[in-house]
Specification:
Keywords: Membrane, Transmembrane, Transmembrane helix. InterPro entries: Glutaredoxin, Grx-like_ET, Thioredoxin-like_sf. It holds the Pfam family Glutaredoxin. GO terms for molecular function: electron transfer activity. The protein contains 6 helices and 4 strands. It has 2 domains: 47 residues; 91 residues, Glutaredoxin. A 4-stranded mixed sheet has the order 2-1-3-4. It is elongated. The protein has 145 residues and is of the alpha+beta class. α1 packs antiparallel against α2 and α4 packs across α6.
């Protein structure tokens, strides 16, 4: 669990150090802007922007019941972030599995990607798709799909 928070914490700490240096050099305005940028970067790379992850086995069980896709992701992945942001509110309808928190999820991703932990990997009806277009994922949520 703490592994997913390493990058955001480092971003905030680095931003704080650099901003402190700017304040001591007489540039409090620049320091505030820079600190804000670092905090925003930390927020984007934190687990807070993604729906609460569940385990791979639970996600597979739920997907079998409701037919919704399973998304395997990890924090700090720019492609996962792109998918999450472009899906907007419909992202909450998906089953999200953080492969850094769930070894079974990491194993499922490796099985789908020739041994690589390439994310995002979206599984629909047992068929994986690596780094899919967000519009395709949204189509998988529609009742006609």
């Amino acid at each position: 669990m703490t592994r997913t928070w390493v990058l955001p914490i480092l971003l905030v700490l680095c931003g704080s150090v650099v901003a402190s240096g700017l304040v001591f050099n007489g540039s409090p305005g620049e320091a505030a802007v820079l600190l804000l940028v670092f905090v925003l970067l930390a927020g984007v790379n934190s687990p807070l922007i993604f729906p609460r992850p569940i385990g791979a086995l639970e996600a597979q069980r739920r997907s079998a019941v409701d037919g919704r896709p399973v998304v395997y992701w990890r924090s700090g992945c720019k492609y996962c972030l792109r998918l999450r942001i472009r899906l907007g509110r419909s992202a909450r309808q998906l089953h999200w599995v953080d492969i850094w928190r769930d070894p079974a999820g990491a194993a499922a991703v490796r099985a789908a990607n020739e041994g690589n932990e390439t994310v995002p990997t979206v599984v629909v009806a047992g068929r994986p798709r690596t780094n899919p277009d967000p519009e395709w994922v949204r189509e998988q949520l529609s009742p006609s799909a």
